Amino acid sequence: NMIQLLFFIALSEMGLILILLFKTPLRKLVILGLDRLKRGRGPIMVKTVAATVFVVFISSIYGLMNIKRRLIDDTVVNPTDQILLFKRLLEASLMGFSLFLVLMVDRLHHYMRELRVRRKSMEAAKKQNRAFDDGKANGTEEIKALEEEVTKLQEKLKQVESELEIKSKEADTAETNVMALKKQSEGLLLEYDRVLEENQNLHNQLQTLDRGLSRSRSKKLA
User: Fold this and answer.
1) Which of 67-76, 106-115, 181-190 has the lowest mean pLDDT?
2) Under 8 Å CB-to-CB from 78, ≥6 apart: which residues?
3) Which residues form a coiled coil (predicted)?
């Protein structure tokens, strides 16, 4: 029976919608089934069935309008036409409701697939942020270690500069002492030359006196 088939289809679609709305183990299976159905030739088959049902729906609406027109034109109420009118109306309502439910199932599946893709992208972004934060923390630790090393090197440089300044002062003092000793030695050399010259003069004077004494002695003896 057409009406029973349409009832079954409508109830099945309502069941699919309920499964998609609530998080149950069946929802993953239904989503996987719909994913496979929309691959390959699945979409063409679904569109073909939907188009057929839509054509039948339009045909039912047309037959319903003819029966209604005939009932209006007839003066005597025909029970058969009334039953046909009710049957066509029920069929048209069920087909329209089934088409609407098919559209609802398709939209729900589409939104859930987009939601799943966005969740995966958000998880990937979170992982990247965590990796970036970890790298940033490691980079901060490396920067701190480098800053500490630079501080130590600056302290060593200051220490070396202070030692160099002390050595420079000691060298200046030693150079001053050397210059003083040099001047002192030059003075001593000059004094030595003077004393040597005086000694030589005294020696010459002594020789001269000695010669004079020798001459005077020789004259006395003569």
Assistant:
1) 67-76
2) 71
3) 136-212
Residue 77 pLDDT exceeds 70? no
Q: Where are the beta strands (DSSP E) in 115-193?
A: none
Supply the pLDDT for residue 118: 87
Torsion angle of the four alpha carbons 25, 27, 32, 37, in this order, in degrees rounded to the nearest 10 = 140
Q: Who contacts 16 (Cβ-Cβ below 8 Å, separation ≥6)? A: 30, 105
Q: What is the DSSP letter of 78?
A: P
Give CA–CA dist 16/119, Å, rounded.
23
CA 29 to CA 19: how far, in whole Å? 10
What's the alpha-carbon Rg for the chain, to the nearest Å?
62
| Mean pLDDT of the chain, nearest integer | 79
Measure the CA–CA gap between 62 and 202, rounded to whole angstroms: 165
Cα distances (angstroms) measured from residue 204 to each of 201, 211, 214: 5, 11, 15
For the whole prediction, is pTM greater than 0.85?
no
* Burial of residue 161 (number of CB atoms within 10 Å: 0-12, 13-18, 19+): exposed
